[in-house]
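User: I'm curious whether this sequence folds into something compact or stays loose and floppy. Could you predict its structure so I can see for myself?
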Amino acid sequence: MIKGEQAYLNLCNYILENAAERDDRTNTGTYSIFGHQMRFDLSEGFPLLTTKRVPFRLVASELLWFIKGDTNIRYLLKNNNNIWNEWAFERWVASDDYTGPDMTNFGIRSQQDSNFNEVYKEEMDRFKEKVLQDNAFAEKYGDLGFVYGKQWRNWKTSQNESIDQLKDVITSIRTNPNSRRHIVSAWNPEDIPSMALPPCHTLFQFYVADGKLSCQLYQRSADVFLGVPFNIASYALLTHLIAHECGLEVGEFIHTLGDAHIYSNHLEQIKTQLAREPKPLPQIRINKDKASIFDFELSDFELIGYEPHPGIKAPIAV
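Assistant: Here's the prediction. I'll summarize afterward.
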């Protein structure tokens, strides 16, 4: 198996050398391949990239948000996590309630026009403050629809019953570890129209062997520079948490990608990252006094020995 984060760096190099240039939903343009798999041995270290700083606090608070079944960005904002803001903001500025400056294509315009960027930042700050302070506004515009947390914890059936997929899969791992049905799906075709962003990481499956828990994720769409480093760390942490609850060691995290792409405005950032030498992976320590995955908070995680290269900024495509 490839060691450390080299599997990720190999993916970046492969895309640069082999990708097709394609248009995309955001009108940014991508360099894309279809079908790729990476494997990470979780016993060798926690797969948080070292060739650029990846903010673990944001990874962990987003995962806890999913686990809680929450779909409103208010929880994230309270934890100073802004990674989902743009999708909620987009809904607000497209609504009849919005009366501020024109925010059409704000993601691209904010990168191209410094004057517009200042206006955009002011509107985003106003939006965040309203989500935090105004309950009615937060309920209407802070919610992202039936995204990950809803599908993981409260999948609605045709009989209007509710399925807690995450709780059920933990029970299944504990009671029938050899099952081939340890699956959680975020892709609910009926709910796609109501989501601010249809799930990119669509389905994950667990596997138990030799007292170790492994996880495989299928990701239909993968923003390789910004999104994938978060996804790797998030599902690695999820595997650690569920292994802890089920009395297992951690095995592998296997990351299977559909459309794996580098946005055209991330090329220089990727090249900067690839020029750096990887460092040893950190270790993750979780609070063993917590028995259930549903009881964890941010303070229950400790990252040990994380000494990465500096972060590399890049615009997000909305």
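Summary: The longest strand covers residues 249-263. The mean pLDDT is 95.
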